[in-house]
Specification:
- With 227 residues, this protein is α/β, with parallel strands linked by helices.
- The chain has helices at 35-49, 69-86, 95-101, 144-150, 161-173, 182-185, 189-196, 216-226, and strands at 2-7, 12-19, 22-30, 59-65, 89-94, 109-117, 120-129, 132-143, 155-158, 177-179.
- The protein folds into 2 domains: 2-96 and 187-213, ATPase, nucleotide binding domain (Nucleotidyltransferase, domain 5, 2-Layer Sandwich), CATH 3.30.420.40; 97-185, 2-Layer Sandwich (Nucleotidyltransferase, domain 5), CATH 3.30.420.
- The protein is built from 8 helices and 10 strands.
- Strand 9, helix 5 (161-173) and strand 10 (177-179) form a beta-alpha-beta unit.
- The radius of gyration is 18 Å and the shape is globular.
Length: 227
Amino acid sequence: MNILAIDTSALTATAAILSDDTLLGEISTTTKLTHSQTIMPMIDELLKKVNLDISDIDLFACSEGPGSFTGLRIGIGTIKGLAYGLGKDAVGVSTLEALAHNIAFTPFLISPIMDARRGQVYNALYRYSSGKLECIKEPRALAIEELCGELTEKTVFVGDGVKVHREKITELMGENALFAPPQHQLQRAGSVAYAARNKKPISASELTAVYLRKPQAEREREEKMEN
């Protein structure tokens, strides 16, 4: 099975093609270009490099969130369009689960964190059990201090929230805080594709975003109304 996966949930744009157990190719960039400018050219380039046509793809996958509202809309819209146009199924993968897959078979707790601003992070907790990644705390948005207060064991942090909150995490957790190296820190479409293998395929029309929080503009509007 050929799986085309993308992740546009944060600043990084990434695309990958997984064929059964072989990662045929993966492209990632972290620039200030918008995902609407980069993701389709990346997909086209990737298909050419691995000598496949878009019609050779059996399943389309993308990160479903949490993450950037605009980025998620672009990614999900792209995958919906490709899957629907070819009559193929799609899969949505939690951005946090995909980040956890960047850290393979560690004996430590895995804590993906994405910067949610205002001192908060998007987070879930994962652990490997008998070689399988298990979610032990479902995705949520919470303050970094609250998260660190929950953690009483050695924990590997991964995600763009590390760059923002590393100093505070180290201050609060000391030697119990471990951090993924740069090459495993950010979103990878290869991890999205790998996670998608074990998900139940759905029709393209059923693919939806998981935001966890309301858009900032909507939150600010509600705050003004309350005041």
